[in-house]
Amino acid sequence: MAHHKLSVIDFFEMKDQGRKVTWLTAYDFPTAQFAQAAGLDMLLVGDSLGMCVYGYHSTVPVTMEQCLLHCQAVRRGAPETFVVGDMPFMSYQASDEQAVLSAGRFLKEADMDAVKLEGGVRVVSRIRAITDTGINVIGHIGLTPQSSGQLGGHKAQGRTAETARLVVADALAVEEAGAVMLLVEAVPPEVTKYIAEKLTIPVYSIGAGLYCDGQLLIVSDLIGQFQAFTPKFVKQYCNVAEMITKAMSDYCDEVRAGEFPQDRHCYHMIQGEEEKFLELMSSEI
Ligand code: KIV
């Protein structure tokens, strides 16, 4: 499919026109190729790669170096897609200066179109500092996995009037600080609808309902690859875990039964060379 790389201006226009944005995580070259061929509007190289690719229990151990390597692979696979680099834990928490330097690496070393960081009111100065250097920032509020310890686990946020008010305050703060888009995670649709209508920047949902400007899912959930747990908001569109396990077990069965490889899987010697080879070998004995 021919692809036109979208810009921030396109995403604002899509919001105005009520056209939904499709957004998915990707961590590697082939998945990025599939996503671009499928016509995804945007990709996120999420720090969820810690759990989906490396098998960590959370996103906390993920490093800048890991994120950058995966961003580079995704960029190579999807050169015509808007790709967002996710800032890992402790790459921006220490100071505005640290945040700017880390964000800059995503552009200089991995050719990202934007960076995403978690938090609302409490990261306002970070968002402003990065934005002031000319880098597109995407805010991420609601359930913020890097601080899930403080939130009491991977729990939906804003389910009471008082906590919903705090989520809205975070959304307003992110826009005010200069972010170009906002991602809302695991928040009731009633609250996200209010935010999407209130904000001028595009507001996207992961587990935050239909009433916003687009949707994000984790690719490993969508294709049925991630096994540890499945959040309520996930829709699994296929089950590659089953497909891959079956393919591997069929392979084992065929090797053990002497059915693989067959003649068509072999590189035979060039015609006439086998006789010469056997002659050579017999003269060497
Ligand atoms: O790392 C990631 O994939 C994310 C999503 C959970 C939004 O931040």
Gist?
It contains 12 helices and 8 strands. The protein is α/β, with parallel strands linked by helices and 285 residues long. An 8-stranded parallel barrel has the order 1-2-3-4-5-6-7-8, surrounded by 6 helices.
**Beta-strand level of the residues, as a percent range?**
5-15%
CATH architecture of the largest domain: Alpha-Beta Barrel
The fourth-level CATH homologous superfamily of the largest domain is Phosphoenolpyruvate-binding domains
CATH class categorisation of the largest domain: Alpha Beta
The neighbouring-strand order within the major sheet is 1-2-3-4-5-6-7-8
Structure, described:
With 285 residues, the chain is an alpha/beta fold. It folds into two domains: 8-238, TIM Barrel, CATH 3.20.20; 243-284, no CATH class. It is built from twelve helices and eight strands. It has helices at residues 8-17, 29-38, 49-52, 64-77, 96-110, 124-132, 148-151, 161-177, 189-198, 219-222, 240-256, 273-284, and strands spanning 21-25, 42-45, 82-86, 114-118, 137-142, 181-185, 203-206, 214-217. It has an eight-stranded parallel beta barrel, surrounded by six helices. The longest helix has 17 residues, at 161-177. The protein is elongated. The N and C termini lie far apart (60 Å). The model has no long low-confidence stretch (mean pLDDT 96).
List keywords for this structure.
binds 3-methyl-2-oxobutanoic acid, elongated, 2 domains, 12 helices, eight-stranded parallel barrel, TIM Barrel, 285 residues, alpha/beta
